């Protein structure tokens, strides 16, 4: 990890700024080491990824994360079955979030719960060699998923700052991002309000938060296909979690993507 990545972060325990525990050269990549805050809280960097998980994860979340760690290597293959079953092209549909990008100029974007970095792979397949204008960050609680994301990013030759952290206490500065993206986790999070509040905290004023997860549209729910989908996987019965939106969320819009099988909730500060 390099200095610009560090300056976007904050100590997850006290919120203060972080620094490397030794002098580093400009543009030096720190693969292993420690970062500390001014109150002395110390955090590890492992394989260039800072680990900023605080407080320690609950037993319930740990169970989920163990599953994600175990499935990380086969995750991309596993979710391909959605394409045929739901009659969608998920990698293409992931490009939906591009419509919220400013047409030109720099953009700071974070994928919260980045998983295997599929959303940024979609961004890359659209922008190819114009990726330079994006300052990309990805955070996840599963080190297994982060490892796969890191490998895919390296293969594509793109630069993404990866952080090990939890959505319930995102170790990033407030008001930092133009776009906060989250796909695929919120339905099963143990504290949905907490997660959405953290996403809103790190987006800048009039920046946009985009949350996408399984949940059939009302129209799809009433079709034979919709009933079969819910019977097979009850996650698809989920509704957009509007009741858990933080009070400060503005301009809330709900639509349906992926052939009416996923909700997309968009809001601003
Ligand atoms: C279904 S996967 C979705 C991955 C990716 N966003 C995608 O669209 O393919 C859910 C992701 O949420 C992550 N996750 C689960 N609990 C989390 C938490 N408390 N904080 C951050 N990420 C979490 C998992 O590790 C996993 O990578
Ligand atoms: Zn601290």
Brief rundown of the structure:
By secondary structure, the chain is of the alpha/beta class. The chain has 10 helices and 11 strands. The protein has a domain at 89-268: Vaccinia Virus protein VP39 (Rossmann fold), CATH 3.40.50.150.
Mind explaining what this structure looks like?
By secondary structure, the chain is α/β, with parallel strands linked by helices. It has a domain at 89-268: 3-Layer(aba) Sandwich (Rossmann fold), CATH 3.40.50.150. It is 30% helix and 25% strand. The protein has 10 helices and 11 strands. The strands form 2 sheets. The chain has a 7-stranded mixed beta sheet with strand order 7-6-5-8-9-11-10. It is globular. The mean pLDDT is 96.
Topology overview:
Blueprint: H1 3-8, E1 18-20, E2 33-37, E3 42-46, E4 49-50, H2 59-71, H3 75-79, H4 81-86, H5 90-93, E5 107-112, H6 118-127, E6 134-140, H7 143-156, E7 160-164, E8 177-183, H8 192-202, E9 203-214, H9 218-221, H10 224-232, E10 250-257, E11 262-268
Parallel strand pairs: 5-6, 5-8, 6-7, 8-9
Antiparallel strand pairs: 1-2, 2-3, 3-4, 9-11, 10-11
The structure holds S-adenosylmethionine and zinc ion.
